[in-house]
């Protein structure tokens, strides 16, 4: 009886198969680890990468901006060199005088460039600029519209301010007007309008716009020489000044001045057109320099045998400057407007299905 009172709950003998657990060894419920395949991991990483903000959606690559700044300085330096060689040297003044006095007589009869009126040049230039502004507004590229407005204002001011400020010393006897005429305002207006149209168009039409801009600039540049309004170096200086200002504007490109993300693709037409124009521009300049070197002995004496060479060099330099500037601007416009982001490389993500 006493044994039963001492142990009211006798211990149940343990079975040899029953495990014993220590206090620190409590069993935990087993949760299976989900397996992730390589494809699912890649999809998750890609989706996360697409959701992450890409700086190329808001601005061009830093290297493209640096290139625009360098080309701005290079074009400005070429414009200054054209002014110096044509105005501040005796051989340059003699060359320009031979060209401006005899250029119209060297043109074929079916090409009456001297008959182009100033009103026509201004009207076509304003029309091209207006088309560029309308295209930028329709595409809702408001930052680009501001860039083009600032570019047009600076180009107008440059043509108005530089001409009365720059001196033109009389180093040799000339038959043309001895007053300074650099830079050419009509040529700068034509070049600026063409470049504005080029930059406003979408990538599918940029090559076509570049060809229109180049052709119009060459026609206006040659017409002002044939009409004895401006000298060859005035035209070259105006084209490169317009190119320098446009390069500076492209360096300020931002989101609404760029192509829409997901639609950015490389353009074969832009690549072919830019390459051909840049190559032709360099070759034309090299040819013009070679011709001037050939007639350099007759420039100081204004020899008659140097007239044809001076006119040929003038045509080559006008075409070379227009082709080179338009080709370079086309190249940099494509680089600044369409840097390939993640979306540009693989396309926009699929849209969710529309619920009916």
From TrEMBL:
Entry keyword set: Membrane, Transmembrane, Transmembrane helix
Database matches in SMART domains: acidPPc
Family matches, as Pfam families: PAP2
Domain Phosphatidic acid phosphatase type 2/haloperoxidase: 145-250
Keyword flag Membrane: yes
Chain segments annotated as transmembrane: 65-85, 110-135, 142-162, 182-201, 208-229, 235-252, 272-293, 299-325
rRNA-binding listed as a keyword: no
Compositionally biased residues, Basic and acidic residues: 46-56
Annotated region (Disordered), positions in chain: 1-56
Protein name, entry field: Pre-pilin peptidase
Lineage: Bacteria, Bacillati, Actinomycetota, Actinomycetes, Bifidobacteriales
